[in-house]
């Protein structure tokens, strides 16, 4: 008894001394469990044979590969177009800069089905750009291109904002010094600015890739077939119910968990000059 | 040589105006001014980092007003040294040669020379984050000088250092300058730093040049009340000249009349540096400027003692410690303040 009361006493005195830490830890635990429990439940719901069966189902595997691949292309395009914009926003002032910055955040806040419809108005076969691209044989409806366009629209803000923060953190005097040492603006960018903002840019690109993988609303409006995984899960859920959709969802969650937790390790390991 | 002709630069809300300046080849010029005076903007403009609203910049006879920073042959070293954090010391130093695609044997040779000059060979493979302030300073200078620039711009290069390394770096700056004979423009707000390094001092305030001259001239003949205050002249009295004879002018301020060997009859200020005052217990003979008063405060400044004497107006007197210790004065002691007419500067 004496031991127990001693333990209780020391826990109470620890809590007394670290009240903020204690309260914050409890609140943090709630939110971590809120994220963890549904995902764990999803993965544990199906037994091994069901998961195995889903994994061997060619339509599941194809759809997962298509999703990862399309999101990768999306991230690459976002990188190519988003990084320059992020740099301009971080380093320059120009008229309507605030409007541009607000506009970039819009895809995050509008319902993604609405985003899909908006894209249809521009890239649909009978509209604007869609017509021109159609003439050279590229269609954005029911195609890989359509998936990419939908993913790009909703995920590129993550990359732009992250890269912009990365560029902003770099002291402009480092670039000034590099210029006076004889570097052209291009050389300054690839020898100083980009390497220093690299971590933020990579984090943004990964975020964008992840957001692309998870996209459903905008993709389903433009491209139902070929089916990305989120559409496949939805279709199986609507047609066959829980038992058919859960294994597919579980496989996607497991793959994503491996990829993103893995990247986090790599990012943390390579921090020599911070 | 640097020639600035009627320079106007606007950066955000700050305005640099009407800057005319000539810095001779090989000269060590210090730009002195309070924080926010526009010193850094001036340096950056010379380096080509700001667009001019008006004016011309001529370096070694060549108009570079529209030239890109990388083509000016001007190196800048900032206060915090701005070393590239992702590159080693060696990579930092040879950056300027790398971007110019210099051949490897020449890079090695230049690196050998510059790291010998600054004695930083043991640091070459380290990252900037692991260096001390003094070491960073040396690396930054080595990086700036390896490209053999015509002009070296130093933005508060000593202010981030502790007192001891500051002293050491100060003499190293002088040595390097003399060795390489490179035209140097050094920005500081520290008056003593300017005195000890400069061939010429340029005092700048609120975006305009206030005075240009050799240190002694800035020190003993400030051209304005601002320069006098900024160079710690301390005894600056407002008043007017009320009479003049063959040798001196008579300047009246409050209840006292000061004799000054100056013919500036339009002066509004009399300036007497605190170290030019004599403090005595007895009334001195044969000195025209001599005023009785009582000691108000005594502040120990280390090597010197600052004594404030109340004699309407108030005088501040800087005494060497040895002299002070031979006198027996305390707060409230009756004393005489005296000084020569030649020590009075009228502006």
N/C terminus separation of chain A: 51 Å
CATH architecture of the largest domain in chain A: Orthogonal Bundle
Residues in helices of chain A, as a percent range: over 70%
Tell me, rounded to a whole number, the average pLDDT of chain B. Answer: 92
Element-by-element helix/strand order of chain A = HHHHHHHHHHHHH
Shape of chain B: elongated
Q: What's the end-to-end separation of chain B, in Å? A: 31 Å
Main beta-sheet strand count, sense and barrel state of chain B: 6 strands, mixed
Specify the number of helices of chain B.
10
Beta-strand segment tally of chain A:
0
Using CB atoms under 8 Å apart, which protein chain pair has the greatest interface?
A: A-B, 19 and 31 residues
Uncertain ranges of chain A = none
**Principal-axes shape call of chain A:** flat
Q: Strand percentage of chain B, roughly? A: 25-35%
And the CATH topology of the largest domain in chain B?
A: Rossmann fold
The CATH superfamily of the largest domain in chain B is: P-loop containing nucleotide triphosphate hydrolases
Architecture of the largest domain in chain B in CATH?
3-Layer(aba) Sandwich
